[in-house]
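Limitations
The structure tokens in this dataset are predictions for the assembled complex, not deposited experimental models. Users should treat interface geometry with appropriate caution, especially where small molecules or nucleic acid strands are included. An illustrative entry is reproduced here so readers can see what is and is not provided.
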Amino acid sequence: MSNESDHVYLSLAEGHEDGDARWAFGTGFEDPLHGVSIEPPPGVDLGALAASCLELADDALISAQRLGEWCTRAPELEEELALANIGLDLLGQARLLYSRVGQVDGTGRGEDAYAYFRDPAEFRNVRLAELPNGDFAFSMARLLAFGAWRLAVFERLAGSPDPVLAAVAAKGVKELTYHRQYAAEWTVRLGDGTDESHRRMQRGLDEVAPYLPELFDSCGSPEAHDEILAVLREVTAAAGLILPLTESTPGSAPLGRAGRHTGHLEPLLAQLQGLARAHPEATW
Amino acid sequence: MNGDLRRALTIAEQVPDPELPMLTLADLGVLRGVQIDADGTVTAILTPTYSACPAMAEMHAAVARELRDAGFAHVRTRTQLDPVWSSDWITPQGRRKLAEHGIAPPGEAPRQPRGPVPLVLSASPSREAASKVPCPRCDSPDTEEISRFGATSCRALWRCRACLEPFEHFKEI
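Predicted assembly:
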């Protein structure tokens, strides 16, 4: 047992302005929108703005959790760093967006209320994000579809009338460009690799395909839809893979966006939320 | 600029980055300005490099701490998201310090054209950009990217094929 002074975590702590010991990094979670002007411009539908931010935040949080699960399981250290970094970018986007939801939905709640204290049916993420990681090739197929979709959505949201959402999206575009590039390169490398890697990459795409209509249904515009599809076609063609497409059924009910999830979300949230719910008064 | 404002700005500018302590916040381009209100409240304005940069909270705390220690009684910090930070904002001095510490400084950030962000696919993307990142140790242009993601969001892993040393590269965004 080490004594307190050389405890590895306590040694990271340093005096904070409030007099509390606080870790140097990571746990001093203050409002990520700290001090940002919060007044939305007149005429913006606050309910719709809050709903959009919540959807995008949930997509990012759930994806970040799945990406984080690759830690200690990725095939190489470099890939582990990459997947963790991509997850961290998405977690950052989620935090900013949850904070925005709390500012405009009239409740004044903080980011933790949304991340830790909602049940599965209250989450609005697309179902693709919550599926288990499975094969590395499946994770790459999912990241390609998710990245291409989110990038197309964020490109357009960078022109949102809400200045906070616009700024989060403009920053996100730069990050998502890296994410999409990473997944595209792996898709080509595996698709155009050995028979085994080709087979597994194709299987990954086949497993992602049933969830694509849900992305297309919430991409906002026909132009965004075509842009996403063009990217997926370009990458799969370069990789020698077949992009299986299922058309969405016109008039079909929304799924993840309506809180109708697969059975995979509940255990994911149990792990994500367990600590916060066991100690609801704790500060981080 | 009055004396107090100049002094507060100088103090804030000299706060080191928590993850790249050879750089100041001014070198990094994340300090967007300092204001003093009529009632004497000092406000330092910071912008994040990446959405989830884990050093942000510490940057805010460090700037506030330094200003308080310098005798400013009322200090606030504020986040500014727009315009979005770009690695182009790293100062020439910041770039020199990065190179001196073995981190290849960023080249020019890609211009965001109007319309869809282009996707570039090539058989070996790492060679594509090779000559753009000279080795910070031996200056050889014969370098290659190992991974676009490194120890922090802002850095990528590279290797020099001339001196065989691995090095980090500050990413262009």
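Some entries come with short summary sentences. For this one: Chain A touches chain B through 57 residues (CB under 8 Å).
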